[in-house]
Amino acid sequence: RDIYAERRNVLVSGLEKNSWHVFHSNATFYVWAGVPDSESEIIWTQTLLEKWGIVATPGSALGEHGIGFVRFSLTQPVERIKEALDRMK
């Protein structure tokens, strides 16, 4: 649990520094974030993958309540999360 909490804290902090609105939760190993600038979550996940090599799930793939959000998994080590955040700057 401590490992996932550390990963979550690093990811949430980094996303918020990059102007993402993040849904805070302590009960999951995913982080949900609203896409910046009211863009489509599908466009954002494509951009994340193609431009920065970062995999995220468009929220709409998980139902209508996910529209406008992307979901990041906390399965990577802190070092990889930091690397991904650096690529997004």
Radius of gyration: 12 Å
Question: Main β-sheet: number of strands, strand sense, barrel status?
Answer: 4 strands, antiparallel
Structural class: alpha+beta
Shape: globular
The average pLDDT score comes to 92
- Share of β-strand residues: 15-25%
Structure characteristics:
3 helices, alpha+beta, single chain, globular, 4 strands, 44% helix, 89 residues, 4-stranded antiparallel beta sheet
Describe this structure as you would to a colleague.
The protein is α+β, with helices and mostly antiparallel strands and 89 residues long. 44% of the residues lie in helices and 17% in strands. It contains three helices and four strands, in the order H-E-E-H-E-E-H. The chain has helices spanning 2-17, 41-52, 78-88, and strands at 21-23, 30-34, 57-58, 69-73. It has a four-stranded antiparallel sheet with strand order 1-2-4-3, covered by helices on one side.
Question: In summary, what is this structure?
Answer:
This protein has 89 residues and is of the alpha+beta class. It has helices at 2-17, 41-52, 78-88, and strands at 21-23, 30-34, 57-58, 69-73.
Question: What secondary-structure arrangement, pairings included, does this model have?
Answer:
Layout: H1 2-17, E1 21-23, E2 30-34, H2 41-52, E3 57-58, E4 69-73, H3 78-88
Antiparallel strand pairs: 1-2, 2-4, 3-4
